[in-house]
Amino acid sequence: MHTIIHSTPSRTRPSAKAAASVVNFRQPAYECQDHGETMKLVVYVPGVEAAGVEIEGRGADLTVTAKKPHFVRVNWSALHLESAQRDYRLRLRLGAGYDFPAMQAEIAHGVLTVTLPKRPAETVAPLRRMA
User: Fold this and answer.
1) Taking the complete model, does pTM exceed 0.85, yes or no?
2) What pLDDT does residue 61 have?
């Protein structure tokens, strides 16, 4: 008599889809500079054009996604270059003190510069402590 044992998915391991989404991106090098009423964020994303950049400010978080144009050559073969050709994703928790709708960004020669103006102190809600 044969016994069939079905494996149950482990709840402790992340799903393959979640793991694949992390693998597809790498974190770029970046610098933050405080300029009084603004904060300047410089993100180094070589090989990225302006059409491949998405910047999202939600709550206290800023997410920058920069995708390279991917070309498939006729004589393509895998040479372990996949890790060098991955797109970029940067997630920063900046806080509620920035005016995300008023931010400005520009990209030139693989250097993305994001300028975030700060909100006036009286409009920023104080942080609540969790007990």
Assistant:
1) no
2) 92
